[in-house]
From TrEMBL:
Protein name: Adenosine kinase
Organism: Tigriopus californicus
Lineage: Eukaryota, Metazoa, Ecdysozoa, Arthropoda, Crustacea
Cofactor detail note: Binds 3 Mg(2+) ions per subunit.
Keywords: ATP-binding, Kinase, Magnesium, Nucleotide-binding, Nucleus, Purine salvage, Transferase
Cofactor: Mg(2+)
Length: 340
C-alpha cells in the first residue's frame, strides 16, 4: 500500500497511559507476590515496585496497551498525526516521558492531566519468554468522559476508534459515548478482550461496549475466559470466536473477530466466515520478550484498516509488527519499517 495516505487523525485511541518498568526476574519474585508468569492484573500497593527498583536493573519504557498500538500504527503508516491518543497522566516526569515518546512516534497526544495523582505504571516481570504485567493505574484511573467534550472535534475527525479492554476498568462511559457515535456515523469502534480478568470481572461493561464494536481483538486465553464466563459449552477457540461474532451488534455490518494464538494461526471471523492465517514462527533465541506483542498486532492491523487494505493484509501486517516487537525489549520497534 506504499504511497497511500490516510487523513490526519483518522485513528483515535483511548486508554491508560502507563510507564512500563521492565525487568528480568526470578520465578521466586512471582511466587512471593502470588503472580502468574503470563498474566495482567491490577495492583494497588507500592511494595513490588520498590523491590524492583532496589533489587533489579530495570528499564523504563513507554507502555499502556492502547498507546502502544497507536505508536505501532504510526510506525507502520510513517505519516505523522494519523493517530490521536486520549488518556490521563499525572503532572510529573513519567507523564512527560510518555508524551515525548508518543510524539516521537508521530502520535498526537491529548492527555487529561491530573494534579493529584502520579502517572500510572506497569511492572513488566519477565521470566523466560513470559511476562507478568502488574499495573498501578494511579492517574490513568481518573480519566473522565469530561475530556471528550472539549476534544469532540478530534472524535469527529476520526474514522476508526480503539480502546483496549483495560480501559473498561477506568471509563466504560467514555468508551460507550465514542462507540455510540461511531455506530451512528457508520464508523468502526474496535475493542480488545486484553486480559482474562476483564471478561471474568468486567463482563457487564464489556458486553455493552461489544454491542457497539464492529471489530473485537483478543488472544486464546482471553477468549477462553470470555467463553467460560458466558457459559459457552466449548473450548474450541474458533467456535468461541464465532460466538463472539454472533453477539448482537448495533451497527449496520457484522462484527469481525480476530483472535491471535501466539505462534499458532490467527483466527478471523468475518461476515460469518472463519479464516485461519498462519504466523511465521521465531526461534526461541530470537525472542527477547513478548510484552506488547498483542498491542503491536492491533497497531499493524488498524494501520492497514485505515489504508483501506483487505483483512488478509491487515492480519499479515499485524503479524509483521508483533514479530518485530517480540525481538526487542518492550513495545519498541526498529527505525526502518519493512512491511510490504
Ligand atoms: C488496567 N490495566 C491492567 C492495564 C494494563 C496495560 N495497559 C492498560 N491497562 N496492564 C498492562 N498494560 C500494558 O500492556 C502492555 C503490554 O501489552 C503495559 O503497560 C504494556 O505496555
Amino acid at each position: 500500500m506504499s504511497g497511500s495516505t490516510v487523513s490526519s487523525g483518522a485513528i483515535l485511541g483511548m486508554g491508560n497511559p502507563l510507564l512500563d518498568i521492565s525487568a528480568v526476574v526470578k520465578p521466586e519474585l512471582l511466587a512471593k507476590y502470588e503472580l502468574k508468569a503470563n498474566d495482567a492484573i491490577l495492583y494497588e500497593k507500592e511494595d513490588l515496585f520498590q523491590e524492583l527498583q532496589q533489587d533489579y536493573p530495570v528499564e523504563n519504557i513507554a507502555g499502556g496497551a492502547t498507546q502502544n498500538s497507536m505508536r505501532v500504527a504510526q510506525w507502520i503508516l510513517g505519516q505523522p498525526g494519523v493517530c490521536t491518543f486520549f488518556g490521563c497522566v499525572g503532572q510529573d516526569e513519567s507523564g512527560r516521558t510518555l508524551e515525548k515518546c508518543a510524539q516521537q512516534a508521530g502520535v498526537t497526544v491529548k492527555y487529561q492531566i491530573h494534579a493529584q495523582h502520579p502517572t500510572g505504571k506497569c511492572a513488566v516481570l519477565i521470566t523466560g519468554q513470559e511476562r507478568s504485567l502488574v499495573t498501578k493505574l494511579d492517574a490513568a484511573n481518573h480519566f473522565t468522559p469530561d475530556h471528550l467534550e472539549p476534544n469532540w472535534g478530534v472524535v469527529q475527525a476520526a474514522q476508526i476508534y480503539y480502546s483496549s479492554g483495560f480501559f473498561l476498568t477506568v471509563s466504560p462511559d467514555s468508551m460507550l459515548k465514542v462507540a455510540e457515535y461511531a455506530v451512528a456515523e457508520g464508523k468502526t469502534f474496535a475493542m480488545n478482550l486484553s486480559a482474562p480478568f476483564l471478561p471474568q470481572f468486567f463482563s457487564e461493561p464489556m458486553l455493552k461496549v461489544m454491542a457497539l464494536s464492529g471489530l473485537v481483538f483478543g488472544n486464546e486465553t482471553e477468549a477462553a475466559a470470555f467463553a467460560e464466563k458466558q457459559g459457552y459449552d466449548t473450548k474450541d477457540v474458533a467456535e468461541i470466536a464465532r460466538k463472539i461474532a454472533e453477539i448482537p451488534f448495533k451497527g449496520s455490518a457484522t462484527r469481525t473477530v480476530v483472535i491471535t494464538q501466539g505462534s499458532e494461526p490467527v483466527i478471523v471471523v468475518e461476515n460469518g466466515q472463519t479464516q485461519l492465517y498462519p504466523v511465521d514462527k521465531l526461534s526461541s533465541s530470537q525472542i527477547v520478550d513478548t510484552n506488547g506483542a498483542g498491542d503491536a498486532f492491533v497497531g499493524g492491523y488498524l494501520a492497514q484498516l485505515a489504508l483501506g487494505a483487505d483483512t488478509a493484509t491487515a492480519v499479515r501486517c499485524g503479524n509483521y509488527a508483533a514479530k518485530e516487537i517480540i525481538q526487542r525489549s518492550g513495545c519498541t520497534f526498529p527505525e526502518t519499517m519493512s512491511f510490504k
